[in-house]
């Protein structure tokens, strides 16, 4: 391995250490912000180490075909140390600001969708419902007005027919009640099983 490749690898591993610090700070801020607890912390820790390992080894493979040397580990540790000495507080504030900005944009988008889409749809549904109720009430009133004279004209006929039809109607109503009761008992039986 040439000296140029070694210097390049050393700089890239130093940068990888910086990246590991940034990822860890991001994870810590998100964990505190969203109050992640329990098994989710272990799962995210495992994910963090997979991502970091993949990042370091892909950069190492790109820079020197994956040759591991002692100075590579020193460069990664030095990169993490320098990051925490110089940039950790600034980066934490920046990440918190970005999270607040994203939350604000999501809330703004949700309110906008509610104002532009959901409220007009709900208003339209209520308007249609009220209009349909008004039309049905108007139709019922008109039907009552038109049927009153017809019922008055038919009253002599209905008075003569009613005594003959009444026993059949009563039997039909009684039979309907028995069927409904049997259906309810069968439904209760099916529900209990």
Automatic annotation (TrEMBL):
Looking up InterPro entries in the UniProt record yields: YabQ
Could you tell me the keywords of this UniProt record? Membrane, Transmembrane, Transmembrane helix
**What sections of the protein cross the membrane?**
6-27, 39-62, 68-87, 108-128
Record-linked Pfam families:
Spore_YabQ (PF09578)
Could you tell me which NCBIfam families the record lists for this protein?
spore_yabQ
Q: From the Swiss-Prot or TrEMBL record, give the protein name.
A: Spore cortex biosynthesis protein YabQ
């Amino acid at each position: 391995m040439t000296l140029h490749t070694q210097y390049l690898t050393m700089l890239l591993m130093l940068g990888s250490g910086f990246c590991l610090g940034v990822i860890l700070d991001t994870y810590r801020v998100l964990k505190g912000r969203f109050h992640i607890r329990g098994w989710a912390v272990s799962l995210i820790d495992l994910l963090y180490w997979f991502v970091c390992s993949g990042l370091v080894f892909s950069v190492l493979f790109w820079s020197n075909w994956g040759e591991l040397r002692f100075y590579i580990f020193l460069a990664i540790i030095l990169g993490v140390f320098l990051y925490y000495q110089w940039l950790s507080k600034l980066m934490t504030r920046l990440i918190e600001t970005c999270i607040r900005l994203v939350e604000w944009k999501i809330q703004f988008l949700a309110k906008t969708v509610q104002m532009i889409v959901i409220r007009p749809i709900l208003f339209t549904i209520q308007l249609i419902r009220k209009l349909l109720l008004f039309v049905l009430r108007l139709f019922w009133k008109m039907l009552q007005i038109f049927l009153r004279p017809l019922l008055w004209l038919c009253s002599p006929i209905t008075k003569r027919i009613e005594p003959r039809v009444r026993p059949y109607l009563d039997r039909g109503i009684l039979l309907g009640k028995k069927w409904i009761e049997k259906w309810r008992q069968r439904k209760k039986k099916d529900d209990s099983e």
